[in-house]
From TrEMBL:
Residues 4-346 form the Glutamyl/glutaminyl-tRNA synthetase class Ib catalytic domain. It comes from Pseudotamlana carrageenivorans. It catalyses: tRNA(Glu) + L-glutamate + ATP = L-glutamyl-tRNA(Glu) + AMP + diphosphate. ATP binds at residue 263. Residues 360-502 form the Aminoacyl-tRNA synthetase class I anticodon-binding domain. This is Glutamate--tRNA ligase. One of its GO terms (molecular function) is zinc ion binding.
Length: 505
């Protein structure tokens, strides 16, 4: 019987969740759902010095907004809790002790000053200091000291760390779903710290123990963890546990394609790198979020899926269900994925067109009401949106595209006025005003038939009438069909605007 797929997203609460982290969560979520498995949220907060107030809730809110509900984890307890590492710290010492007992780890008492001296001494000789097989017997640890000396130091309350004893002269054969087979010479590995005398494990030990106890079958994480893969494999072997399968996702690169995408890139080029707005509790600095910038969660999920994954077809628009169906880790690239802010807007524009006008009207209504200091009918707002939405990328674009549906122009575009107004324009518009006044049933069809009929029978060029008429209604030569605008603002308002342009220009 094959094991049930269980994956985890395990961020540290050290600040807002970068979109690289959201992409990692998404790939874990897609993989779990594709295989009928569980998606787990674990908070890795062993480093209490870097803990930031509010960051954990931010992570939970970001996953919710993206439409990736967890099956178990922080906020949704399951059989494998607790899901915060700080609440599991009593667990880890027994596993550190187990590794010492089996000879796979040892106590090290070297002070920070001693290690710093060795580091600088190596640098002066043009070498790099690595704490491992070639020098550990010369340093202060339970391998170079007798059992009695070691115990005496521990009893005296000396600070220590527990280090992993990396093997000498071995070749590790590691497997990665995305990167294939990896060979590592153990002689270049350092003896990583697993546990500190303050009772806290390092990331490496806590991570392995938790993944094992939570029965994680696949570890899908960022490329930055690739250098830790050798140690993690060895820890599984040292405990006699079956290792999960690993997949290391490519980096998300700057829009230039050079270097990892950072918050600075977003600030410089004017796009967010966080899913939700974040207010720093220490500095009160506010960082922009995709949600607050007007992106739809579906658009964000769609563009993040394409940062490193390729469906192998020309299709670019995927719903979450389609992504789950088509997602395959074997189609994730090794190379870094360049972030394209314009492409993210392209996705948002697409999802804008898919939204119901009523839904967009609800989002746009507060903006209209604030601009006009009035309570505008949602249905009317929705009708206006329906006429312009193909030109919009964000809800915030709507005011520029629809303001003339709500308020008459107070000025007229100078360039457009010169183009539209000729010697006979006033006379033509006066005639149009009279014709409009005579239309009984003021529907789009009747307005169109009447005005077009008059233009044709008088053998006037369409532009001579339609351009100044549009200018009168909008204040510029833009907007949807003129007859739609007239129907929306009504007969009286249409006449008023035509009369106004005649007297003004």
């Amino acid at each position: 019987m094959t094991k049930k797929v269980r994956v985890r997203f395990a961020p540290s609460p050290t600040g807002p969740l970068h979109i690289g982290g959201v992409r990692t969560a998404l790939f874990n979520y897609l993989f779990a759902k594709k295989h009928g498995g569980d998606f787990i949220l674990r908070i890795e907060d062993t480093d209490q010095n870097r803990y930031v107030e509010g960051a954990e809730q931010y992570i939970i809110d970001a996953l919710k907004w993206c439409g990736m509900p967890i099956d178990e984890g922080v906020g949704k307890e399951g059989a494998f809790g607790p899901y915060r590492q700080s609440e599991r710290k009593d667990l880890y010492k027994q596993y550190a002790d187990e590794l010492i007992a089996s000879g796979n780890a040892y106590y090290a008492f070297d002070t920070a000053e001693t290690l710093d001296f060795h580091r600088k001494d190596h640098e002066a000789k043009g070498k790099t200091f690595i704490y491992n097989w070639h020098n550990r017997l010369k340093l202060s640890n339970s391998l170079s000291l007798s059992a009695e000396e070691t115990q005496a130091k521990i009893d005296a309350g000396e600070d220590y760390v527990v280090r992993f004893k990396s093997p000498q002269d071995e070749t590790l054969h590691l497997k990665d779903i995305i990167r294939g087979d990896i060979k590592i010479d153990t002689n270049i590995l350092d003896d990583k710290v697993l546990f500190k005398s303050d009772g806290m494990p390092t990331y490496h030990l806590a991570n392995i123990v938790d993944d094992h106890l939570m029965e994680i079958t696949h570890v899908i994480r960022g490329e930055e963890w690739l250098p830790s893969l050798a140690l993690h494999y060895q820890l599984y072997k040292a405990f006699g546990w079956e290792a999960p399968e690993f997949a290391h996702l490519p980096l998300i690169l700057k829009p230039t394609g050079k270097g990892k995408l950072s918050k600075r890139d977003g600030d410089k080029l004017g796009f967010p790198v966080f899913p939700l707005e974040w207010k720093d509790p220490k500095t009160n600095e506010i960082s922009r979020g995709y949600k607050e910038d007007g992106y739809f969660p579906e658009a964000m999920v769609n563009f993040l899926a394409f940062l490193g994954w390729n469906p192998g077809t020309e299709q670019e628009i995927f719903s979450l269900d389609q992504l789950i169906n088509d997602f395959d880790l074997k189609r994730v690239n090794k190379a870094g994925a360049r972030f394209d802010p314009d492409k993210t807007k392209w996705f948002n524009h697409h999802y804008m067109q898919e939204q119901y006008d009523e839904v967009l009207a609800e989002a746009f209504k507060p903006i209209v009401d604030a601009k006009l200091n009035a309570d505008i009918d949602s249905q009317y707002i929705g009708m206006a949106i329906g006429l312009v939405k193909e030109r919009a990328t964000f809800v915030s674009d709507f005011w520029d595209l629809t303001h003339y549906f709500f308020t008459a122009p107070t000025s007229y575009d100078e360039k457009a006025s010169k183009k539209a107004f000729k010697e006979d324009t006033k006379a033509i518009l006066s005639e149009i005003s009279t014709i409009v006044n005579g239309i009984e049933d003021f529907t789009v069809e009747n307005i169109q038939t009447t005005i077009k009929g008059w233009i044709t029978s008088n053998e006037i060029g369409f532009g001579k009438v339609m351009m100044p008429l549009r200018l009168a209604l909008v204040g510029a030569l833009q907007g949807p069909d003129v007859f739609d605008i007239m129907y929306m603002i009504g007969k009286n308002e249409s006449i008023k605007r035509i009369e106004n342009v005649i007297s003004t220009l």
